[in-house]
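Contributing new records

If you add data, match the layout below exactly. Sequence lines come first and carry their own label; structure lines follow with theirs. Keep one chain per record. Anything else will be rejected by the validation script.
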Amino acid sequence: MPLKSSRPLEVDIPSCGVTLVESHHSQDFRMDWSAHPFLKVLAVINGVGALETDLSRLRIQPFDLLLVPSDSTHRIIDDNERPLSLQIVCIGPDLVDDVARHDGIRLRETLRMRQSTLTNRLRPLLRRMMAEQSRGEAGSSTLLRALSLELLIAFHQQGESIETARQDNRASAAARMADYLEQLESEFYTEESLEDAATRLGMSLRSFTSHFKTLAGCSRHQKIASLRVEHARKLLRDPERAVTGIAFECGYGDLSSFYRAFKRAEGCSPGEFRARASANSS
């Protein structure tokens, strides 16, 4: 059980210019308005709350990645019922200045990245940074600096300003669901749970399932199964593709699950479907 705190952690930047901490908030967590001489990247692990700056207030939730510039006045406010757990990357001014000097990239505003293929790639990067910091071997400090630079470049290329993010948060539930359905058409292979998907869209489970069925005409489970089987049908027409590889590409963790889902939808096994498709094309 992680130790929970009611106040922000004190951070000292080491000589390598990068340090990572985990902050697990108690229900009575309070943060005063603060500004730090280092840049922070916040990864929301759990809970919900808000990030306030002197210009705006942004609701934050699991899977969000946020960048708070050096010397930016801000505070974090938790939902008392669901206090936040954060992974925090603290990057000293020398490293931030290097990016500005060599690439002209000046990170001066608060930025957010929402759940996406990119953030899915960045989370393993954060885990690797934690591992390197814990390992503390020769080369770990240099790796930490290199991985921090990759993180900063990703925010420069893909981050949205807090004002844009705040406006996006006000988008209607129907619009968010429409975007989600569009995303699902190409990312049906992901293993995101129903609960995580609802949290990412800022909806209750009941609201999510209701909006999904209204727009898609079926449940999320049925939609994902349909998209996966449709993709499998296309891949099975290629005789060079192995069934095991097709199952994995379509999002199935094991062959038996793939066979059951395919037979339920098509009335035959993947092998039988492939044989029929081959016979029809000859």
